[in-house]
Amino acid sequence: MWAQRMPSIRAIGIPIEQIIKGKSRNRVWLVLSVSFLFCFSLPYYQYSSSISSNNITATSPNDYPDSDSSKPRNLNYPYSIPNHNETHNRESNISMTASPPRVNEARRNFTDVSGGTTARVNRLSSMPICMNKKNGTDLKSKEDSCWGRYIYIHDLPNRFNNELLQNCRTLGSWVNFCPYVKNNGFGPQLKDSGGVISNKSWYRTDQFMLSVIFHNRMKKYECLTQNSSTASAIYVPFYAGLEIGRYLWGFNASVRDAAGLALVRWLREKPEWKALFGRDHFFVAGRINWDMRRDDNSVDWGSKLLNLPESKNMTMLTIESSPWARNDFAIPYPTYFHPLEENEVFEWQETVRRQERRYLFTFQGAPRPNMTYSIRNDLIDQCLVSRRHCNLVNCKTKSRICNDPVHVIRNFKNSVFCLQPPGDSFTRRSTFDSILAGCIPVFFHPGSTYIQYLWHFPKNYTKYSVFIPIDKVKNGSVSIDKVLSEIPKEYVLAMREEVIRLIPRISYARSKLRGIRDAFDISVKRILEIIEATRKKTREGKDPSNDFPEQKSWKYYLSGTTGKHEWDSYFET
Ligand SMILES: *[C@@H]1O[C@H](CO)[C@@H](O)[C@H](O)[C@H]1NC(C)=O
Ligand SMILES: *[C@@H]1O[C@H](CO)[C@@H](O)[C@H](O)[C@H]1NC(C)=O
Ligand SMILES: *[C@@H]1O[C@H](CO)[C@@H](O)[C@H](O)[C@H]1NC(C)=O
Ligand SMILES: *[C@@H]1O[C@H](CO)[C@@H](O)[C@H](O)[C@H]1NC(C)=O
Ligand SMILES: *[C@@H]1O[C@H](CO)[C@@H](O)[C@H](O)[C@H]1NC(C)=O
Ligand SMILES: *[C@@H]1O[C@H](CO)[C@@H](O)[C@H](O)[C@H]1NC(C)=O
Ligand SMILES: *[C@@H]1O[C@H](CO)[C@@H](O)[C@H](O)[C@H]1NC(C)=O
Ligand SMILES: *[C@@H]1O[C@H](CO)[C@@H](O)[C@H](O)[C@H]1NC(C)=O
Ligand SMILES: *[C@@H]1O[C@H](CO)[C@@H](O)[C@H](O)[C@H]1NC(C)=O
Ligand SMILES: *[C@@H]1O[C@H](CO)[C@@H](O)[C@H](O)[C@H]1NC(C)=O
Ligand SMILES: *[C@@H]1O[C@H](CO)[C@@H](O)[C@H](O)[C@H]1NC(C)=O
């Protein structure tokens, strides 16, 4: 299924250089305003930093922007602002041209869209005003622990979600997705790992199943409401990534766009839409944004779902967001560990903490011979030179190992650092696999993580990762072995501890864990904050727009400003 991820340069029509170096975006400075005083203090978690008696700390709250604090919140949307001076993995050798996708006979009919309008819902006035809770006299939130957190799940026609799973054979041209939709989207359970992983809660999860996993978890969310007018957010359970995955290769634009257009047509007709023009809606698209961000004037790749005017009013979650777009946010790729109880998390954290690691660094991946900007060949060469320190798993020749979660975890558990270069796009699922194995990620481009998963990772990236600029690898002026060998041992241990703390934050648990937030909890909390901010602006009669140029979204979200940034050259347009 990795082959589904992204085609060769030729098939996609957009050289990776353009993505990596920054590509010319549609300069519509559409906006959703983002600065506001944070008065939306959620009575969310009784969160404590020492959640377990045996002295294992799952996360260290103060390092993370979403940690609760007894101090009054005064954050800027949607992240707290870092110090401004601060400075994917299923691989395949399948060539796109070798296996042309077959014409999909099972194409769905998206033209029949029903959607009646019933009573007009006015959430604008029915929602409680964002309250000043400084002295804790806010009765509404005291009586109702779900206040401000209610979510309404839109009852979409089956063709937007369940039918895709029922017709799982149509989801991939080369890969049979049917096993992967099992177990609520976690895929087949992993067993008999020879002690590499624990016997429970591990699955052969496909990287594109996020929307299914998210939906199933949302069904168990503790503050669902049947009454959309009491909801703080409207969840649209459209499996956008699975849907477009069927048509990325060999279909024309109208086929690729049909479902998205049908969806927004359906949504627009609903009373829920009319209340806030969809600004309180969100959906989860489990593919990289490039697969759904076609610009009518530019590349012929993917659908234009994320660029539709309706979508721009919604909040969209993807596994890789665009640096130049304001309304999509990246959340972790699903990896293989889906705990049911917090103890499983603590046990796994302890396992990787105690793990002896034979190699200094590991690179697992396939080269990208046709991408001149790719450094994967350079990494492979460096790894071969540093044989004693580096474990090379070349997925061009070892695709079986690269596709086997137990092998992947075993390799990453056996290494102190894991190299995470860009591949077909900025990000890799491998990043999350390595964190899960307690292997400190080494990044080469800030687009691979630092500007992506701002909700889930510490804002100070030096705490959990090593950054080696891609240009230095490309021009041969840096030895990765040398850089990594020279990092002091205490610092390596501190970084690994931070990586281990990230494990629950990047995992999608099977249900809510006690005392710790998983990737789902963190995402939901952030979405509610974003939507509340928009609602507040709208209620105040302001146009939720124009706070910053959309082109500079990455910078604004990262630092809270749009001035010069040391990473400008990575995202030049
Ligand atoms: C950032 O750096 C500038 C110049 O070096 C300095 O004047 C400023 O105080 C620094 N700001 C912070 C927040 O550290
Ligand atoms: C990768 O290529 C080798 C040799 O060409 C082939 O045997 C193998 O099946 C390929 N792997 C996949 C996943 O197609
Ligand atoms: C789509 O569905 C509608 C209603 O079921 C039907 O009238 C129409 O012919 C279908 N279109 C196609 C292209 O199958
Ligand atoms: C809390 O706020 C209410 C209403 O604004 C006020 O009457 C009350 O005196 C305040 N209580 C404290 C302890 O400040
Ligand atoms: C996992 O299961 C295997 C056999 O099913 C067993 O040998 C092994 O001890 C189990 N491991 C753990 C950690 O329970
Ligand atoms: C839904 O909530 C609104 C506002 O709280 C309330 O006025 C309305 O009666 C509720 N509708 C139903 C069907 O409960
Ligand atoms: C797109 O492809 C579909 C089916 O493959 C075909 O019916 C339609 O005419 C094509 N549209 C255009 C604009 O080429
Ligand atoms: C998007 O929201 C704005 C108000 O913020 C509204 O004027 C506009 O019509 C909405 N767009 C759509 C397609 O609903
Ligand atoms: C790279 O490009 C060459 C020449 O166009 C082509 O033959 C080869 O299949 C491509 N390799 C991959 C992995 O796409
Ligand atoms: C970031 O983390 C590193 C390592 O813990 C630390 O040395 C540095 O001072 C931190 N930077 C900031 C701005 O907090
Ligand atoms: C390599 O690239 C880096 C970063 O752009 C630059 O600082 C360095 O001077 C270059 N070294 C050589 C030998 O070209």
UniProtKB/TrEMBL annotation:
GO molecular function, one term: glycosyltransferase activity
Taxonomic superkingdom: Eukaryota
Annotated keywords: Glycosyltransferase, Golgi apparatus, Membrane, Signal-anchor, Transferase, Transmembrane, Transmembrane helix
The name this protein goes by in its record: Exostosin GT47 domain-containing protein
Places the protein is found: Golgi apparatus membrane
Domain Exostosin GT47, chain residue ranges per copy: 146-479
Matching Pfam families: Exostosin_GT47
Coiled coil: none
Record region (Disordered): 61-111
The keyword Cytoplasm belongs to this UniProt entry's keyword annotation: no
UniProt-listed InterPro entries: Exostosin (IPR004263), Exostosin_GT47 (IPR040911)
Entry's Gene Ontology cellular component terms: Golgi membrane
Entry similarity comment: Belongs to the glycosyltransferase 47 family.
Membrane-topology descriptor: Single-pass type II membrane protein
Transmembrane segments annotated in the record for this chain: 28-47
Tagged with keyword Transferase: yes
